[in-house]
Amino acid sequence: MVIKLVPIERVRSGKRLELRDVINVIAKVLSTGGVEYPIVINQNFEILENYELYEALKRLGVKLVPIADRYMKTFIPLEQLGFYDDISPDPLKVFMNTLELLYRNWPTPLVLLRSLSNSERRVWAKLEGFNPFSGSVKDRIGWYMFIKALEKHGKNIKKLIYEATSTNTGMALAAMAAIHGFKARLYIPRGIQKASDTLLKVMGAEVIRVPKTSTVEFIDDVDADAKKDGALHLNQFENDYNFEVHLRYTAKELDLQFRHAKVSPIAIVGGIGTSGHMSAIALYFKSKFRDSIKIYCVQPKPNHTIPGIRRIETGMKWIHWLKIDGVIDIGRDEAIREAINIARNEGILIGLSSGAVVAGFKKLMKEQSLDKGDYVLIFPDHGFKYVERFDEYFSKESDNT
Ligand code: PLP
């Protein structure tokens, strides 16, 4: 039998492998840009050898897989496996429902920031605020974790969903709940802006304020409540679909956008909360470009809070599986100031964690003399939720003058 390409759904695997088990295979496929051996199957399309490749390709979102009845050296580029097929936006943006408005409208924009660029340096921002439900990167995981749970549990599931969130994942899940006739109960920490309660209620969710400072402190309590009530708890901090959606879409989109705009980034800078999006971006581009691309993450300085991001030592799953080039501490006021600078220089309103990313980039420029080439900043959300925080900052500023 020669090597054939067949739809991935035709192949059956008797082994369940976790993301952790196949992360190196994913890296290998991305670094070679294709597949070097087929999946060995029997007449019933059951896998005999190369389970890891099958699992890796499934997670990378290919449409076709190479099969054969024995091992043989080959090379099939990812393009031939339908690797990029998921990213096919409707050019005139007509959608048949609001879910399509989310996933068929990707990529989110990549825009050149003139205020940070000069004749030798181009600084690009990926605007995750363009996602429709929460105005944030979290729409991606809300959608993917939710549809994967529906696929797994089928229709017999109780239409109730609980999650710990600092707002954005909550809004994304509230949207998914609304669309699918579920009830959402969202647990948010005490320090989050008041507007969040209203926004989540408008979207039909029940909101519980937990008297703790960070979402990670009460995941176990949410899990216990969910078990007691038979509710779905997707747990963004542990759920590998969080990482996978960014590998399959966010990173892949960036790859296509880089090609289209002839961008070859020296560094990508982003924020870390669960570490989902930056870990997937790091795996994708470190595999593809090796060490010629640097990945930097920003976190709040000790005792500072910046909504959406956390210090790495507070516990994150995926970021420790990969290589990153540095973590930069940012103060809350610096983050707010840079968000204001972007609004005043570029006319777009971004959230505080995006401001932290700008602050991190500026620090890198100074410390590492990053002056030539392309740089990419990931802006996780829109700034509309943070009006109270901008107000506080302005009042503080006027007290000091
Ligand atoms: N920025 C904002 C505003 C967020 O809401 C989040 C996640 O909650 C992040 C950054 C971090 O994203 P991730 O959880 O993918 O690390």
Average the pLDDT over all residues and give the rounded result. Answer: 96
Q: State the helical fraction.
A: 25-40%
Rounded to an integer, what's the Rg over CA atoms? 22 Å
Distance between the termini: 79 Å
- Identify every distinct bound molecule in the structure, by name, code or SMILES: pyridoxal-5'-phosphate
User: What is the oligomer described by this structure?
Assistant: single chain
Number of strand segments = 16
> Strand fraction band?
15-25%
Could you spell the SSE succession in H and E letters?
Answer: EHEEEHEEHEEHEHEHEHEHEHEEHHEH
Side by side, the strands of the main sheet go: 7-8-16-13-14-15
Question: Uncertain segments of ≥5 residues (pLDDT<50)?
Answer: none
Shape: globular
